[in-house]
Design brief:
mainly beta; Immunoglobulin-like; 163 residues; 12 strands; 2 domains
Length: 163
């Protein structure tokens, strides 16, 4: 009889171990994180979570989970006649991006779109003051648009975020 009780206990103990291994909470590999304290309470945060949720109240909302920076920069390298400048919008973009020059005078200019690894994705001439760039088929991430003059000298660089 002890033999049967012993085997039944071993069986249930084995089932318990098996079930306990599958009933763990979600895990994520976090690259960074911390705690912020203020008069309204305490918030713990981490970078690298796999899911997100949004909690909304009348006073505001908090998005928990995936954290993506929106760092949008433009660098003026050289301006033609100190009057021409470019802007790219909407930024961040999910479909079409527009590259607009404030004073188009039929200069021979072109743009080149690069990914974060420096791989050239698109190169085209700028033939009108408002150029449409199709971003639909590109992966989510950051890109750089480099604008060049007719002597292939960089005029301006704009960082783009694709959603």
């Amino acid at each position: 009889m002890n033999f049967i009780k012993s085997n039944i206990l071993k069986f249930f103990f084995g089932v318990f171990l098996l079930v306990s291994n599958f009933s763990q909470a979600q895990e994520s590999v976090n690259t960074s994180g911390g705690v912020d304290k203020g008069s309204g309470g305490t918030v713990s945060f981490s970078v690298g979570q796999m899911v997100y949720t949004t909690d909304s109240k009348e006073a505001g909302s908090v998005v928990q989970g995936i954290q993506r920076p929106y760092k949008i920069t433009t660098t003026d390298i050289k301006k033609l006649d100190n009057t021409i400048s470019f802007k790219a919008y909407p930024n961040p973009s999910s479909d079409d991006l527009f590259l607009e020059m404030n004073a188009f005078r039929n200069e021979k200019l072109n743009y080149q779109l690069y990914d974060m690894q420096g791989k050239l994705i698109i190169t085209n001439p700028i033939e009108v003051s408002k150029t449409q760039i199709n971003m639909r088929d590109l992966a989510v991430g950051s890109y750089f648009i480099h604008i060049y003059d007719s002597k292939n000298q960089a005029i301006q660089t704009i960082q783009i975020i694709k959603e």
